[in-house]
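Sequence in, structure out. Go.
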Amino acid sequence: MAGTTLTETMLAEVRAELAELEDPKVREVNERHGDDHGVNLGKLRAIAKRLKTQHELAAQLWQTGDTAARLLAILICRPKAFEQDELDVMLRDARIPKVHDWLVNYVVKKNPHAEELRLAWFADPDPVVASAGWALTADRVTKKPEGLDLAGLLDVIEAEMKDAPDRLQWAMNHCLAQIGIEHAEHRSRAIDIGERLEVLKDYPTPPGCTSPFAPIWITELVRRQQDKSS
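Output:
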């Protein structure tokens, strides 16, 4: 009982600290990307560094439904401690882009059920859920491609990416780029698909950053790899 009370007290203190960090200007910028919070992420990470791993507190922060609290929860949880069903429920409830991305990248990818979840989400009728399946697939294309049907993935991308909803389209495009970057035997086809579909061709790219347009992305990353090896 004492432990529960201690966690509840800490929850209240952490939420108060997050509320104090709320900045209207930061919120205005974040809301343009669909993220409904106004906490500077550097300051949020500093709190996480101080708290270290606290899985029970993370669970309570997540349950609040508050975006800043959920981002902090992701940073202080124990990724391997979640059951597959828990992560499925959390992902389906994570509708804010930053929460969704962090949950997939910082938690699901480190969880022992990542592959089962990839397969379950990949063809989900909800495009936001499906985008998580594609993000995990792009990760496998890079790190553990054995057993993946890369030609088959390119078939799906060629047929469906052009008209896919934004978040799903972005994840499919990332997978397309990773196939082209990491697998020379599929590179020309990946570039050709990107050129014909023109997805993200006109995406505004800041100076010094690589365009997410797959043909440019693939060509640039391959060039960098070749420069490193020469």
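Check: The first helix runs from residue 2 to 21. The mean pLDDT is 95.
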